């Protein structure tokens, strides 16, 4: 027999389940409603195909490509550091390291993701950029390279933790079979475990990439505020996320097409990360099914 | 597309072949070097920030307000603001996340519905924080007319960290042995009694550890707060949840983007304070989780 109080509690629990769905719909709703104001005055194709983003100059142009390229550029630079480093570290931790050292190394790596991103941004600006300028004097004070590399360290723990989990859950009998055939430890790691864990590793990489696309503070501090249609990592650029921050901080009147750009840019960012997150989730689930 | 994939795999293979031809497998050493490289960079960061920021850490720094003169500027309003946020995010996200976690783990029976909710939570966890800022701006700051207040900020951050709390609640509940619930059912307990009096007390440290991690995320976050309108110059400490606010990460952002070098010292000092706070919460969470794992496994 359920008491009335319990029915109430269960209703509240049900409500909290609905709430999580409500948040997603609110995000989509807020973005769509406010971007509507933008897209009703700017043709969608101009936004999707334009290569100039100058909302505040005399000749207004609202092409998203400069911001998209800036976002992709910093995220790709981050991946260029985090992918090889993360992959090698997770192979090492899963196949080579002994368990006591692993228990020290893993939390230490995970600490990288506990550091607030504004701290990473500060480091990129006052430490990494001057260091890069010392070696390559042509680099501007604000550039894509320095925040990109620093972002690589930020997303490293995502790759190491998820792909190490994936590698460690590869069944032991696969390894034993390979060892029995005379394979070396390296051969087992590279030719047996890595291919078997491929979906899990890919899921980790995609998730890390998506995190890098949405990362805001590092690029706001160190990448500059110059929307440029370029893939040159040594000059100032602007990403979608740092554009939103710039407008939020600036004294643009809080209505009108110029202000509503942040919601249009927000939709772009949302769609991109949403697609990647779901791809990653799907791959991880498929990985679990293959194992089962 | 497929051809590129095949090329990628061939590159992988060639790397494997090349490595096979090496005389000895030194990967144990390479891996160690890479890992130590990354870990030492983290340590280097702490050392650098400590050296740069330590001289500024004095009573004036902790009791001062924002100022044009770096030597006189302090973090009092930011520190109080961060503590407000810490407490409020705890109060808001803990019950909500716990409830949703229990609901998902114990009550959802329809598998399709369960899949939908699970996918949804994974998605929520993946939404960039700056977009939560846009949500908070339209929903709390304007929609509910909370303005640029401590409460608006805390609600926004609570939504952002909610998925973390939900996921850790579910994991904690899953760790509870089935025999516990079965024993309770056998004695005639209702479902809710079983959860509340038997499963949850065992799972509780795991839940708390997840909440602590979530809070440490929330107090380090600046992007959504900049979007909802955190201000650079707060001449007083927020005294109620409806006051204007600033928090440590926002203060660090404003100091770091100033051109004068001596503000960078302020930024380093504030980073030192923020890092101590987040690392303390993190360590606490990890310790609680470890002790709890040991107790459950025994």
Low-confidence stretches of chain B: none
The major pleated sheet of chain B works out as:
none
Average predicted local confidence, pLDDT of chain A? 88
- The CATH class of the largest domain in chain B is Mainly Alpha
CATH topology of the largest domain in chain A: MetI-like fold
Query: How many structural domains can be distinguished in the coordinates of chain B?
Result: 2
The assigned structural class of chain B equals: mainly alpha
Helix vs. strand class of chain A: mainly alpha
Strand order of the largest sheet of chain A: 1-2
Overall shape of chain B: globular
Task: State the share of residues found in helices of chain B, binned by percent.
Answer: over 70%
For the sheet with most strands of chain A, the description reads: 2 strands, antiparallel
Low-confidence stretches of chain A: none
What does this structure look like?
The complex is a heterodimer of chains A (292) and B (298). Chain A has twelve helices and two strands, in the order H-H-E-E-H-H-H-H-H-H-H-H-H-H. By secondary structure, chain A is mainly α. The longest helix of chain A has 36 residues, at 4-39. By secondary structure, chain B is mainly alpha-helical. In chain B, 78% of the residues lie in helices and 0% in strands. Chain B is built from twelve helices and no strands. In chain B, helix 2 packs across helix 12 (261-297) and helix 4 (76-107) packs across helix 11 (248-256). The model of chain B has no long low-confidence stretch (mean pLDDT 86). At the A-B interface, helix 1, helix 3, helix 4, helix 5 and helix 8 of A face helix 1, helix 2, helix 4, helix 5 and helix 6 of B.
